[in-house]
Amino acid sequence: MSRIYPDEVAGPYDPPPHAFTDKADREISIRRFEDTEALVEMYLAFDPEDRAQGIPPTTEDEIRDWLDTVVSDGGVNVVAWHGGDIVGHATLVPDFDNEETTLDEFELAIFVVAAYQESGIGSQLITALLGAGREAGIDRVWLTVERWNHAAVELYEKVGFEPSDTGNFELEMGARLR
Amino acid sequence: MNVLLGIGGSGDSFRALEKTITRAQEAGDTLTVAILENPDSEPNPEELVERARTALAEAGLDPDVRTLDGHAGSQLVDFAESEGYELIVLGGGETSPLGKVQLGSIAEFVLLNATVSVTLVR
Question: What is the ipTM of this complex?
Answer without folding.
Answer: 0.80
